[in-house]
Amino acid sequence: MAVIAFIGLGNMGGPMAKNLLKAGHTVQIFDLSADALADVTAAGGVACESAAHACQGVDAVISMLPAGKHVKLVYEDEQGLLTQLPQGVLVLDASTIDSQTAREVGGVAKDRGIDFMDTPVSGGVAAAQAGTLAFMCGGSADAFERARPILEAMGSPEKIFHAGPAGAGQVAKAANNMLLAIHMIGTCEALSMGAANGLDPAVLSTIMKASSGNNWSLQVYNPWPQVMDGVPSSNNYQPGFMVDLMVKDLGLADEVADASEIANAMGKLALSLYQEHQEKGNGQRDFSSILEQVRKN
Ligand code: NAD
Q: What tens digit of pLDDT does each residue of 17-76 get?
C-alpha cells in the first residue's frame, strides 16, 4: 500500500480520498477549508497544515482542485510542490483544467524528474462516492502503469484510459463533455418536439432508444421528468452534474477547439445555450434542466 498526499478535499476530492483510505492506503491530506479537512480526517486521513507538509515521505500526490490557476499555484508557485518533491514521485492531477496548463505543469515536472499525469474524471459526486469514476490520463506509459493501481481504488478498472501524452487527458475530457452537452440538448429538442405534437415522451424515448437516435442522455439520463427513475429530471433537477460545471467544461472545450482551429459550431452553440440557462439562475441545477429552455408544453 502506498503513502499518498491528497490536496483538495471538496465535493469530489473528499470521497475520492476516503476511497483511498478504504483501500488501505495512508493518505496525508490538505485543503484550505478546515471543514473539508475535518471530514476526511474523521475517515482516517492524516491532516496536514500545508500541501508541502502533506507531501512529506509520499509515493504519490493527487490533487482535485477547482481550476488551472489553483493547479499552477499548488505546483508551480515559488513555494510550489514541484520545487519540493523528490525525483521519482508520481503526481496525478484529477482536476478539470485547461490542457495548456496541464501540458505546462507536466513539462516542468518532467524537467525535475517527476512523473506527472493529468487524470481528469467523468462520473460526478455519486461516482466519486461509489468509487466508480472514469479516469482519462495524459502522461507517459510508465506513469500510467504506476498510476493504475492507485486510480483503481477510486474508479472502475475498465474505465481507466491512457489518452496520450501530458494534456491528452484534459483534451479527452473536454471532447467528451462537449459531445455530452450537444446530445443532451438534441435529446431535449427531440422529446419537446414529440410532446408538442401529442407524443408521450416515455413512448418516444423507447422508440428512439431502439432507433438511430439512441444516445447516453436518452438511455441513462432521460431529461424529461418522470420518464426514468433515479435521475435528476425526476427529482426536480437536483444535481447530478451542475450547469455551472457544464459551462466551465464547454468553455475549456471551446478553448481547445479554437487553439486547434476546429470549427466547433455545435460546441459553441451548446456553450451559449448553457450560459443563457445559467444566467437565468439555473447554475446549481442539473445540466439536464436545459430541457426547460426548449420545452413548450
Ligand atoms: P469543490 O469546489 O467542491 O472542491 C475544491 C476543493 O479544493 C475545495 O475544498 C477547496 O477548498 C480546495 N482548494 C482550492 N484551492 C486550494 C489550494 N490552493 N490548496 C488546497 N485546497 C484548495 O470542487 P469539486 O466539485 O470537488 O471539483 C473539483 C474538480 O473536479 C474541478 O476541477 C471540477 O471541474 C472537477 N469535476 C467535478 C465534478 C462534480 O460533479 N463536482 C465532476 C467531474 C469533475
A: 999 999 999 999 999 999 999 999 999 999 999 999 999 999 999 999 999 999 999 999
Q: Ligand 1 centroid vs 26 CA: distance in angstroms? A: 21
Q: Assess whether 173 carries a catalytic annotation.
A: yes
Pocket of ligand 1 (CB under 6 A): 7-13, 30-33, 36, 51, 64-66, 70, 73-74, 95-96, 121, 124-125, 241, 245, 248
Q: Which is the catalytic residue, given 173, 248, 280, 296?
A: 173
Rounded to 5 degrees, what are φ and ψ at 159? -115, 25
The domain spans of the chain are 3-165, 171-296
Q: Which fold does the domain 3-165 belong to in CATH?
A: Rossmann fold (3.40.50)
pTM reported for the whole predicted model: 0.95
Are 127 and 241 in contact, with CB atoms under 8 Å apart?
no
Ligand 1 atom nearest the C-alpha of 65 is 7
- The architecture that CATH gives domain 171-296 is Orthogonal Bundle (1.10)
291: left (phi over 0), alpha (psi -120 to 50) or beta: alpha
- Residue 137, all three cell numbers: 490520463
